[in-house]
Amino acid sequence: MSDSYKAIFENNRKWVESKLQQDPHYFDTLARIQSPEFLYIGCSDSRVTAEELMGVQPGEVFVHRNVGNIVNPIDMNSSSVIRYAVRYLKVKHIIVCGHYNCGGVAAAMEQQDHGALNAWLRNIRDVYRLHRDELDAIEDQQARYDRLVELNVQEQCVNIIKMAMIQKLYVKQGYPIVYGWVFDIRTGLLKDLEIDFKAILSDIMKIYNVSGSKDLNFDKSEEDKPEEE
Ligand SMILES: [Zn+2]
């Protein structure tokens, strides 16, 4: 067995020791319940770890990761994660977090056959097609690549907002709210893309209103409910 493999268990033992030193009941508490406020949907990239870059502890964020931080309506995996997070964990914030220098986005920009990955990468290629005018106008290749990372996050946020359960829950309780972030792997900093959730939701519901609600007056519903962070 390789040393790097064995080191994992040694690391784990040390981690348990340090946690118990800080709080002897740490694992008793952790075992009892999880009540995260955040659902984080990010890329599988090994350099982009949700808890570390957000500075949160186990129990504070529910996580889903795949190549290119994609939310596709026929992907049972991400759909189930979102459903579980909003229905049962009652998360208030859903974050889609992409990252610069994303291999998935880079592969989608290449005119190459990526075998089994092709169907998955098509989600990102579709984002390119949707925003082709803007992207093709960017001459600098790195800047175009960075912008596609951002637009991919934005479109995955839109895919979440298209989901009936998100629309229904927001109309009913004022959350969850969807946010788009990019992790800048070159500086370590998180960038909030400041996606206008309410404007996107209002626009989307003109076409994708699957909430069953006829009253989509968000301004009115806002008066009834406390503003979410
Ligand atoms: Zn990536």
Automatic annotation (TrEMBL):
| Keyword Ribosomal protein included in the entry's annotation | no
**Cofactor stoichiometry and binding remark:** Binds 1 zinc ion per subunit.
Q: What class of enzyme is it?
A: lyase
Might you give the EC number(s) for this enzyme?
4.2.1.1
**Superkingdom classification of source:** Bacteria
Kindly indicate whether the keyword Transmembrane helix belongs to this entry. no
Gene Ontology biological-process annotations: carbon utilization; cellular response to carbon dioxide; cellular response to oxidative stress
One Pfam family name from the record?
Answer: Pro_CA
Known catalysed reaction(s)? hydrogencarbonate + H(+) = CO2 + H2O
Chain sites annotated for binding Zn(2+): 43, 45, 99, 102
| Any one GO molecular function term | carbonate dehydratase activity
Look up the signal peptide feature and give its range. none
Cellular component aspect of the GO annotation? cytoplasm
Q: Which keywords does this Swiss-Prot/TrEMBL entry list? A: Lyase, Metal-binding, Zinc
Give cofactor(s), names only. Zn(2+)
Report the family membership. Belongs to the beta-class carbonic anhydrase family.
- The protein depicted here goes by the name Carbonic anhydrase 2
Organism whose genome encodes this protein: Neisseria wadsworthii 9715
The gene behind this protein is: yadF
